[in-house]
Amino acid sequence: MHLDLVVEGRLIDIVAEGFDAGVRLGEAVPQDAIAVPFGGPARFLAAASPAYLARHGRPRTPDDLARHDCIRFRLPGGRLYRWEFERHGQEMAVDVPGRLALNTPAAMIEAACAGLGIAFVSDSVAQPHLGAGRLDIVLGDWCPPFDGAVLYYPGHRHVPAGLRAFIDVLKETDPARKSSAAG
């Protein structure tokens, strides 16, 4: 078996590019693909340093972000990401203001820790900084968890033996599957 791992920031057609499988958020998987969830739910959240919040105040709703410095995320295709929020069934995408746009979550976290504004990043990236007190969550009640990552592969093609074995191991070792099977 050979492993060819390519990390891309853009969505690609795995069949056209010659790959057996890919990894995406579940909501972005093509309809004709088979998805195998792993890792459990994910969450994006807005976070800022305590010093930034002391100087500028804490936003209470996504609309309040219009009066804040937001650290924007530049997508691989060049577009700026619109922050997505949800609470009590109300969904909203906000084109936040900001003088700083970065293209990596790590750079966004560092800028937020330095007090340059509010960043919108995955909780897994922010967690070490939240735990250490360098960042605080803002608008937490607007940032619910959602279905996380999936391994996906074309539903209309033969699944190579190596991929089948990997899927079996993934299912066997995924803690989210183990906890749901135990309940």
Q: Can you identify the CATH class of the largest domain?
A: Alpha Beta
Q: Which strands sit side by side, in order, in the main sheet?
A: 7-4-8-3-9
Rg, nearest Å: 19 Å
- What's the CATH architecture of the largest domain? 3-Layer(aba) Sandwich
Largest sheet: 5 strands, mixed
Structural classification:
alpha+beta
The whole-number mean of residue pLDDT values reads 89
Which oligomerization state do the chains in this entry correspond to?
Answer: single chain
- Overall shape: it is elongated
Helix content: 25-40%
* CATH H level, superfamily name of the largest domain: Periplasmic binding protein-like II
Find the count of extended strands (DSSP E, 2+ residues).
Answer: 10
Query: What are the secondary-structure elements, in order, as H or E?
Result: HEEEHEEEEHEHEEHH
Uncertain runs with pLDDT below 50, 5 residues or more? none
Q: Write the CATH fold name of the largest domain.
A: D-Maltodextrin-Binding Protein, domain 2
What's the helix count? 6
